[in-house]
Write a structure and sequence with these properties.
Four Helix Bundle (Hemerythrin (Met), subunit A), 6 helices, mainly alpha
Length: 180
Amino acid sequence: MNSTEKPTAMLSEEHQSILKVINALIKECDALEQKKELDKDFFEKAIDFIRNFADKFHHAKEEDILFIELCKDEVQMHCNPIPQMLHEHDLGRNFVKGMEQGLNENNKAKVIENARGYIQLLQEHIDKEDNILYPMADEALNPEIQKTILEKFKQAEHKRFTEGTKEKYIALADEFEKRN
């Protein structure tokens, strides 16, 4: 099985779109700290991306498929990082809630605080997954199980997103990447 056919490669690729949005959040927080007005449209789009692409789409594949496979008794890993990954997903959801509350309250400081928390968490989280968890998964899961996981990923994509929705969010991440 070549690396592009691995479920972890698909997840790492999705991380690239998530990181584009993270980088846009960094720039926006920097601008807000330099007295820029709160750009509600930007943050609403960012929250929509995070909730739908990063969480419902990407994290769901990890939580509902990959992590379940990795926790099966027959899968041998020298440690189990899954509880920590799940905890970090929940922390991220709380930061997004805080960002949204700050936006609704027109509270720039609260938006910045929660966006910065989300940024730091996700940068570290993605690094852990790409460089620790996913290589462990590639080693622990045989090619047959990986093929099954890939099929489940594709089914989950079709179930969670209508035609063109994934592309819409990838285009939004690309648009964010081009922002000044």
